[in-house]
Amino acid sequence: MQEKYEPQAIERRWQEAWSGERVFEVTEDPSRQGDTFYALTMFPYPSGDRLHMGHMRTYTITDAIARYQRMRGRHVLHPMGWDAFGLPAENAAIKRGIHPAKWTWENIEYIRDQQMKRMGFSYDWTREIATCSPDYYRWNQWFFLKLYEHGLAYRKEAAVNWCPSCATVLANEQVIETRAAVSGAERATAAQGRCWRCESVVEKKNLMQWFFRITEYADELLAGTDELPQWPEKVRAIQRHWIGKSTGAELVFRVKGAVDEAKGATEVRVFTTRPDTACGVTYIVLAPEHPLVRELTRPEHREAVEAFIGRVAAKSEIERTAAEGEKEGVPIGAVVTNPFTGDEVPVWIANYVLYEYGTGAVMGVPAHDERDFDFARKYGLPIRQVILPPGDDPGAAPAGSATTPGGVRLEVGQMQAYTEPGTMIHSGAFDGMPSPEAIAAMTRHAEQHGFGRARVTYRLRDWLISRQRYWGTPIPMVHCPGCGTVPLPESELPLILPENVQFTGHGKSPLLSAPDWVNTTCPRCGGAAQRETDTMDGFMCSSWYFMRYVDAHNDRAPFDPAKARYWLPVDLYVGGVEHAIMHLLYFRFFTRFCHKLGLVPAPEPVTRLFTQGTVRYNGQRMSKSKGNAVSPNDLADEFGADTARVFTLFAAPPESDLDWVDSGVEGMFRFLNRVWRNVYDVLRQGGQAAGPQSAAAAKEMRRQTHGAIKKVTDDLEREFSFNTAISAIMVLSNALGDHLRLPAGEQDPAAAREAAEALVLLLAPFAPHLGEELWRELGHQGFVAFARWPVHDPAALLTDEIELAVQVNGKLRSHVVVPTAADADRIREIVLADSQTQAQIDGKQVIKVVVVPGRLVNVVIK
RNA sequence: GGGGGAGUGGCGGAAUGGCAGACGCACCUGACUCAAAAUCAGGCGCCGCAAGGCGUGGGGGUUCAAGUCCCCCCUCCCCCA
User: Which of A128, A184, A208, A859 has the most beta carbons within 10 angstroms of its beta carbon?
Assistant: First the structure.
């Protein structure tokens, strides 16, 4: 064995051996069904920036678990692929004249061969997928047709989010509020919706677009969040909130003196979660986009209303609904009747009401809603109290109030909205009822009298999947002047992206510049027709890629359901929490759809989700654009991939952010050198007989070995405590080093060898190349990657004597050594005889002696 | 404002209600060396010469015993309004 640890040569050799002997390639084996483990990491976008250690951390976490599970005997599927469609490829084309396909494939090749393979990840590369390949995206198109068939894909004109910089529309989930904009002086512009990719301020545009009806699944996606015990609570909470189920009622307010009863503009429907406050309504608000606005606006208000709509239309939803944003509105002149009280109240439009949500109309109850309160105060609208806080006298109006016709007008400067439950007042037949009961009672009343019904609404909107860009999956639809929108037959898939197009980035799909492609014949009537020129959102690709890995080369179906049954659901999915709504919601939706089609065995894609922390360097999140990216290639050159891997796992718990510290990396390299040196020394002294005075040292060595096996196994089984597991391996290595430095007569070669073997096995999932090399040096033939994970021997952990801490009145005062077998009485005797303890007791009365077996003794004195 | 999470040495971080600071980094001392690096041995929460005292964001509480459990407060991060 070589005396010096030289990772570069070792790592290359083992990477070649793994790939040459195809050890990580797996095929379905019926005898191992039920014993499988599917370990998956969110696949990367093959960016021109290449990968840095921030990316590698994620892959290292999954790989460590995949390797551990293999050693535990599981049949492990661990695939990798490329989320290869997206804007940067197209922007590179515009900027540098490289075709997106060429740019993408070059990046893939570099990242795969020069970066990932050098890190020693145990992927089954035969299952590699790239979503920009027609072999893959034809199944995006297939799924699109299936969704269309089931009424879950549809086209409509809608006010959609438009990113002027990316020159395309965005799904609701892709509009974010960035922190960058929120900085003191910029308060006014803070609450703006911005593009998730480029942070440009998002605009509203009316366009005809394709949507997936994810709202159809809102309820089951919501219910499903409760059946994911191994998902972080944070992610489940974010999803619940995003789905945003509201239970309440829809109420009908009749329009007084409707212009034309026959045309139907005779009523306004509002959605409210608080029907119990209905008698407190003092106005009604419509969203500015509400179609009734045009019909109901009185001529004398028309000018002001149109001016207001013009101002509001351009603003994003986030901006409009932000709590700190100014609420603005104008009356439109119409008057409606409160169905509960018969009171007449005015109709307004305001910026804080969204057309897309609920019915696009709300009732204004200033006394019991903060937003309505602010609005009423600003515009001098009456405030009518209908719920009395507990403890208030129902006979008396609140102090400082004055009565006005139509209700109680409060001195608003001294009051605020009361939003909690209470007792009903000023609500006719419902007076005296607790308000939570009134919610149901008043809803029932509305239903019986035909002016309302119980209703549930969601915050979740349908998923807008059209993109006006080139580098994505073509939507397999044809627009025929005679037949309308016609789906392509499955037999015509894949619909291949044309190669020669103009990349302009001007907001029209580049596909329009390929007339040979656009002009086609209608699949139904055979007449001249045009293809759909929008492409699909990239999140389409990532919604089902984990299914494709189970059968990556199937050219008759997206995958074989039998193979899906063998591997799915994914046992462990590792990725960033930034995907908590976008990707993770879409792919749950897709999985549920596929489950209904009978394609996958479970309604949820992933049993355990793990969200890792970010990697920081010099105080900032590591990224190429911030110029603080640490290159895995440089690390592999200088210290080897194993050092980079083990440092990444050791420096912080995997769910926490990690500070990259160069000196820490060097420390890890020193540790691996010590491991190497220890195994070298064991081998050099191997075969010797145990020394004459070795019994105690052998016992201690074995205790250390089996203690480490237990600790590392527990840490990996319970939580992914790689940092403490590696620390336990360090303790074992240090103990082995100590043993090897004992005088020859006190050493025990057998115990040392057992320690070395355990050391190598325990370290192998984290430092796999070093593991293979040392395993071979220790005389084993097979790969350590498939060696059996060690099991600790409880007997080795037992000792004859044990040291206990002694506290007096809870303060640490002494230590005593007692036989391990001693019972509480015997321990008490030994402790009370201890001179240090005696000195503390100092003749005082011993009230009680608490003995905690194996740990400590607390003597309570007075 | 609502939801999720976090505050422990110089730093990253350990601690099923049971000896706070495992393990590592940095630093200090010593050995080896002409010297340095590497390596090895030792030290390393704060105050104190010491005995000892004080210490897990702050304040209360429960307990023989609290970083850990309960109540109040402060600060920071993330998500949503």
Answer: A859
Write down the residue that tokens 């018969």 correspond to: A342
Instruction: Say if strands A535-536 and A466-467 run parallel, antiparallel, or are unpaired.
Output: antiparallel
- Give A195-211 pLDDT, tens digit per residue: 777 777 777 778 888 99
Distance from residue A236's CA to nucleotide B74's C1', rounded to whole Å? 29
Residues 6+ positions from A542 with CB-CB distance below 8 Å:
A42, A43, A83, A131, A583, A586, A587
Q: In one letter, which amino acid is A177?
A: E
Instruction: Give the distance, in angstroms, between residue A820 CA and nucleotide B50 C1'.
Output: 36
C-alpha separations of A628 from A116, A546, A549, A654 in Å: 20, 32, 33, 20
Strand B contact with A737 (CB < 7 A) = yes
Amino acid A323 CA to nucleotide B1 C1' distance, rounded Å: 8
pLDDT at A405 over 50: no
Output the six-digit token pair for A764.
């192998």
What is the ipTM score, two decimals?
Answer: 0.94
Which residues, 6 or more positions from A672, have their beta carbon under 8 angstroms from its beta carbon?
A5, A7, A640, A642, A643, A646, A767, A770
**Is pLDDT at A441 greater than 50 in this prediction?**
yes
Q: For the beta carbon of residue A659, count every other beta carbon within 10 angstroms.
A: 13
Cβ of A238 near strand B (distance < 7 A): yes
Query: Measuring from the CA of residue A671 to each C1', which nucleotide is nearest?
Result: B24
Contact criterion met (CB below 8 Å) for A425 and A415: no
What pLDDT is stored for residue A184 in this prediction?
Answer: 34
Nucleotide at minimal C1' distance from the A650 CA = B24
CB A666 within 8 A of CB A692: no
Cut 0.80: pTM above it: yes
Q: What's the maximum distance between 2 C-alpha atoms anywhere in chain A?
A: 110
Alpha-carbon distance A64 to A649, whole Å?
A: 9
